[in-house]
Amino acid sequence: MKQFLLALLVTFSFSATAESGWVGALAPDFKLQDQNEEWRSLEDYKGQWLVLYFYPKDDTPGCTTEAKNFRDGYKDIKALNAEVVGISLDDVESHKSFAEIHDLPFSLLADVDKEAATAYDVLGGFGPVEYAKRQTFVIDPNGNIVYHYDDVEPDTHMTDVVAKLKELQKGLAE
User: Fold this and answer.
1) Is CB count within 10 Å lower at the N or C end of the chain?
2) Catalytic site includes residue 63
3) Do 140 and 146 contact (CB within 8 A), yes or no?
4) How far does the chain reach from its first CA to its final CA, in angstroms?
5) pLDDT (tens digit, 9 = 90+) per residue, 25-35?
């Protein structure tokens, strides 16, 4: 029953609707393992833009679509001096399988203790089932949150992010 509820929740992505207040804030630090058992922290991405996306569950329809779209647009994001990092509550083993099956070129971080999801206020749940809400934070090279997507459409999110990165970077150049 618990797995059925989680699948149902992941299929119908819930997102925050209230104004988040994240823009302008210093991004909360994290220290989590990626799919290769390497420890990653916010400091590792200093000096470049970071697209930090939280998602509910590996190998579910919306999460797979979102990850594959980031994979397919990865070169466009890298060309903008940006990195993509995905975070969910899944463990390292699940991330390793998910990344290998879909040939993902970016890190997936295992937030099994829910520390990052809690720090970024994306921890959601329904009864005993907890998951990371599908939200994305765009973080500038200095570690500041410059944009927050609290409502994400997996099919178009990657192109939205690329457009937003271009807009933000153009604004800095002017």
Assistant:
1) C
2) yes
3) yes
4) 54
5) 889 999 999 99
